[in-house]
Structure formats: C-alpha cells, structure tokens
Amino acid sequence: INNTNLEFFPVKNKAEIFRLRGDFLLKMNDCENANVAYSNAITLFKHLPKAWISWGNYCDMVFKETKDEIWLEYAVSCFFQGIKYGVSNSRSHLARILYLLSFDTQNEPAGRALDKYLEQLPHWVWLSWIPQLLLSLQRSEAQHCKLVLLKIAQVYPQALYYWLRTYLMERRDVATKTEMGRIAQQRMQQAMLANNAANNLSEGNARTSNLGGGNMTSDNQVHQATQSGGAAVSHDGGNLQGQESDRSNVEGGTSAGHDQGQPSSTGADGSQMPARRNNGLGWVTSAASAFDAAKDIMEALRSKHTNLANELEVLLSEIGSRFVTLPEERLLAVVNALLHRCYKYPTATTGEVPQSLKKELSGVCRACFSQDAVNKHVDFVKEYKQDFERDLDPESATTFPATLAELTERLKHWKNVLQSNVEDRFPAILKLEEESKILRDFHVVDIELPGQYFTDQEVAPDHTVKLDRVGPDIPIVRRHGSSFRRLTLIGSDGSQRHFIVQTSLTPNARSDERMLQLFRVLNKMFDKHKESRQRHLAIHTPIIIPVWSQVRMVEDDLMYSTFLEVYEINCARHNREADSPITIFKEQLNQAISGQVSPEAVVELRLQAYNEITKNIVNDNIFSQYMHKILPTGNHLWTFKKQFAIQVALSCFMSYMLQIGGRAPNKILFAKNTGKIFQNDFHPAYDPNGMIEFNELVPFRLTRNMQAFFSNFGVEGLIVSAMCSAAQSVVSPKQSQHIWHHLAMFFRDELLSWSWRRPLGIPSVPVAAGMINPLDFQQKVINNVEHVITRIKLISPHYLADEEENSSEPPQSVQRGVTDLVEAALSSRNLCMMDPTWHPWF
C-alpha cells in the first residue's frame, strides 16, 4: 500500500487506500499512525462511510483502553457520520450507538453526540428501534431518547402510536401504584436525611432504606444518601429529565431544619426524588417522569396529527373491548391450564391433591364466579356455578376429589363439557355488524395497515397501504382450549391481513416482540452470507401490534395448524383418548415419586415407560400420514418438506442459541401450505442472577415423528446443513461485531423487564428505581451476550490452520457440533426425562 502511486486514482479510491492502510497499521498495533491514516482518508473524501466506521471503531478501542470520555464522544460521532453517508447498513451501527448511550459515562458524551447529529440523520433509521427508545425513557438517557421519539412522532406517527399508547397505559398503572408508597417514603426519607445530617457521620457510608408500597413491580425506589464529613447531599426536584436544576447543597454539619424543608417542597408535585447513585453514573428517572415524558410525546403526536390519533383511538378501543372472549371460553382455557398443571405435578396420582393446587382451584372458583361476573353474565353463572364449585372447589370438602387422579378425571370431564358447549352454542363465524356497529360504519381516512415500518428501509409516507375496511366475517379460532377472534384488515390495494386478538396476556408478552425484532436482524445477516443465502434461510416474522397492556393483535395465517392438533386428529380417528400416554406415563412413575427407588432406577423406569408408549400407543408416522393426506400432490409434499425442514432447523438453532425450552407441541404453529413456523412463548427464562436459565436435557425439539417425516436424509442433509450455515453467517467476521451489539440491546431490555417482574423476596442485588446497580447490570448483559456467542461458535464450522490439518488424527466433520446436538435431541434417554406434557413420544 505504501508503494502505490496514488496519482492514477480518483479521490474516493485514494481515501479508501488510506483507510486500508489505517486498518493494517492498527493490526500491527501502530495506533498513532493508524489514526493519522484515517484522518487523511476523511480529509480527502468525507463522504466515505467505511472510513468513518473504521475510525469510529478505532476511537471506541482507545476509549476502552484509556476510559477517556472524549474518545467515546468521537466514536459515537464517527458512527453517526458513517450512518449519514452510508445509510444501507445503518441498522447494525445504530445498535452500537444505542448500547453506548445506554451505558453512558457521567458527562454523557454519547448523549451529546446524539443531540448534535440527530437532525442530520434520516428519521426512518430509528423506526425499528422504537421499543428500545421507549424503554429508555425510564433510564438515565431519557432526555436524548425523548428527542428522537418526538421526531418520529411528527414524521411517522403510525409507526409509533400503538407502542407509545400501550407504554403510557403500563406506566400509568405503575405510577398510580407507587403513588401511595411515595408519600410514606418521602416522610421516611426526610427523617433519614435529617438524622444523617444531625449525626454528621464521619466515614462515607451509604444508608439504604428500601420502602415500597409492597407491590409486585420493583418500582419501589431505594434511596441512598451518602454522607461523609463534608460531602454534599443533592436533591433532584420534580424536573422531568432529572436535570440538576433544583439542587440544594447541604453541608454535613448544617442545620437539619433546612435539610428537612427541601425534599418536601420539591416533592410536592408527587414526582419522586431520585437520589444520586453512589458511583455517580447519572440520574435514575422514576416511573412518574417516564410517564410524563411519554405523555409529552403523545401530546406532540396528537397536536400534529389530530384526525389520525382520533381514528386510531376509535379503532383500538373497539378492538380491545368488543373482541374479547366470553366467560365460557375463559373458563375452558382455565380448566385446560389446570389439567396441564395436574399432569406436571410431581405427586403420585394416588396421592392427595397438593396444597398449592388447592389454592389455585379456590382462586379460580372465586375469580370466575365473582360478584362482577354474577352481574354481567347471569346465565353463565346460573348454569355452571353450582356444579363447578361442587366438583372442584376445595372448600366444599365433602365432594372435593380425594386423589390427584380423581381431580384429573373431573377436570377432563369439565373440559369436554365446556368444549362441546362452546363449539355447539356459539357460531364459528361472527358477523362484524353484530359485534361492532362502529367498525362496520367506520370511515377510514388516515389509518394505514399496521406493520409496514418493519422493513428497515426508507418508507415514503404517501406510498404506504391505507386501511380500507375491516372484513365482515370474524371467525373464532380455537386452539387447545383457548379461543381468539380473527379480524381481517383489508388494505386500499385489496390485500388482506389476518390478525387474531389475544387477550389476558402474561407479563412476558413483550418478550415475544423483542424476539421478533431479533429475528429480523438475523434475517438480514442470513441474507448477507453466501451459504445461508443460497439455502433461502429466513425466520418467519409475523407482525405483533399491541392494543392495550393486556390485549394484542398477532398476524395469523389461515393455514396455521399446531403440532398437537395433528396428534389429536389421529387420536380422534382411531377413537383413542389423546391424553392416555400422559396418564400411563404418570402411573408407571408412581413408585419413583414416593422415593423408594434410586435415581438410576428412576431413569430406567422412565425409559421403560417411554419405550412402551412408543411401541404400543404412539406411532412415528402420524405426522407423515397427516401431511400425505392434506397435500394434493407429490410435488407439493417435496416442496413442503424442504421449506419445513429449513424452518425447523432455524427454530432449533434459535432454541439452542438462546437456550429456550418448553417447546410443547401445542406451542408450535406451522402453515400447512408453506411450512412456515411460528412459536408461542418463544423467549429465554432467567434465573435469580439474571443469567439465562435452562434445565432440559434435549437442546431443542426434534422428535420421532419429525425424524420419520424428514427421513435420515432430510435430518442430516437439510436440517444439519441449514443449522451450520445459520451459525456461520451470524458469527462471520463481518457480522460478529453487529450481532454482539444487537444481542446486547436485546438482553438490556429483557433484563430490564425481568428486574421489574422479580418478586420482592429476592434481594440479591441492590435495586434502585426498579433497576439494578448500573455496573452490575452492564456486566449481566455482557455475560449473557458472551455466553450466547460462545454457544454459536461451538457449532459453527470454522477453518483449521495448516499445521492442525496435518496432525495424525482422522479429520473431523465441520458439522460435528450440530450432529452431536441432533443426536442428543433424538436420544430416547434424554427424551424420557422430559415432562409428559411435552409429548416426547410424538
């Protein structure tokens, strides 16, 4: 490079040569000259995105070594310039910017850079990061993220509205919950500060008082007042961004009276006073200020797009209130869940019903037949209440079942009764004009079909597909005890999108949306790698639109069927009870549970029961028969097999990579025409320390029926090679940095919501403002990311150096990592240790 004659090149190429020179010098550890080479490249041609990114990487590296904040600001500025000039690859670098912003240092260099360059970036690059930006509103970087969201609210209101509205509702609930705890807290805190000042503690110790309204969300603020000989205690007033505007410095020895007066005056507006954290990492913004910030953004959106906001409000409140399930359907879902719980309980079937299950049952009886239900659904209560409570309420001691087996039988009976009632009495298809007159007459002007902003490309607001009307028929979709209404949204171009309305969500529902975000990132990576691109690897990503905090719309395919349905259809054809294998399995294990058998013998018992079921009850060709029957020709079958194999491989890869368990067959949906797979509840679980928790012996679900359908050629040829190329494309040198930051943002949000959901009984880490200590928190995120990347590297094929190849051992297959996993997933020893509701024999 040094000897190249630069006169023959145009400016752009000259700059690129200087950039390459910088890269080489950096590899040779000549940092000074590398820096000079990069700055020369930029001076020659400042529109070269690659040079900006390389220079940014260099600055980031220097910052990590020196911890000097000015380098962090340089790095973020370089990344912004790189995005500005080379927009196509922007998303990957935005992950990095948001990560640096989330764990910014005290003087907020990353935040300053963001405020400086925000105007120069096209606004659509932020669209795919809306959920992350909203979650940041209750962290220290709130003021910077608020600016970005205000911009989006003006230009792309529909990309933001659904999420912002749900976020506001959730925050409002939390803010009102903590309101009561807050007043008591402020009094306690004043007393504590006065006490500190009076005692004039000489050694710098931190007093932590954890007082809260005792609610489940850990929004109870922990106030830490650090007091040393002459240290200053600072209070933050009710100012929204947590700026140090209203700050009074109280010297250690000043009068306690002034100290007491201050918090009560600033706390009067009900906003919390975030105390300065000991390690000086900025301010923690409280639940109330996050709510205020979100409210400001919503007001800006409404004032600019008034008509649109009103239309969306009508649409969402109608969907949220009109298309909820009926009490019978809810009761059926509850009975189904309880039945599963019975199968999962590690109690002998002849033993008595465990205490915790009794508690749940009495809770169900109270909830389903509460005073509210009595007023609203008179017929429902009249019909079911007496019998249900006689059979299943632990308080009616004379009629309550004595053993677990008896309870299971009763629940089965109720499930059948309710199921036949629900199917016979309610029409399979509801009419829109009967369900919601407002939506029937709804005249849409501005609303677009939801979900058009996920492509991560520029979206011209006038090129989007508008919503024309809601389809007249609303079929009821029933899957394993739960019922949903399926809405059809018809676009102005005649296209139809089907959404099912899911109600009564668990707190984990947001994790599903985060997983889909991660899938979209991975799809871009698969698209850029040779091996994965030629196999057409792409994870299916349906659209999820939040309606209320408990209701959401999930894009649905008319051809979806669950894995368990295939099995149930087969049982119905042969007139067998679908749950019989579970019952047999449980009965054979009764002696193991009572503790008379050694652990090794338990494994043998389970294996024996498993083998018996696979031999006599469940064949391995059920799935193959089903697909042969419903697909019209051999060509269809071949194509389906190929596409389905790739989808199975990708879901296995994701299960292994993020250690996601619990893949029971009722959670796996596949489209019967395209083989696309969508999984419910597909997200990692965390242990009390915030690390991914996983305790299943099989790495993913690949059971006998799938193996028989694909045959060994399909498993070894299609599935193994697809998993290998997926792993390779994600950790390829080009993507390895990007995947790191994308995963870091994923885990940041996951662990944030995990830390709020945690029960109060685990005081394992100091929780401040519903938040873990920031250094700890960053470490947890990094540990999880490193863990995931190590796992991917274990199975991705890698090149061996020459001297390793010439060693005397026989050469190993490049797919070795994946084939070991597949063997583990298919081994009957591992399968028999799975929970019976997982249907390991199917």
TrEMBL record:
Residues 471-797 form the PI3K/PI4K catalytic domain. Residues 810-842 form the FATC domain. It comes from the Eukaryota. Residues 1-170 form the FAT domain. InterPro entries: DDR_Repair_Kinase, FATC_dom, Kinase-like_dom_sf, PI3/4_kinase_cat_dom, PI3/4_kinase_cat_sf, PIK-rel_kinase_FAT, PIK_FAT, TPR-like_helical_dom_sf. PROSITE patterns: FAT, FATC, PI3_4_KINASE_3. SUPFAM superfamilies: Protein kinase-like (PK-like), TPR-like. GO terms for molecular function: protein kinase activity. SMART domains: FATC, PI3Kc. This is Os07g0645100 protein. It comes from Oryza sativa subsp. japonica (Rice).
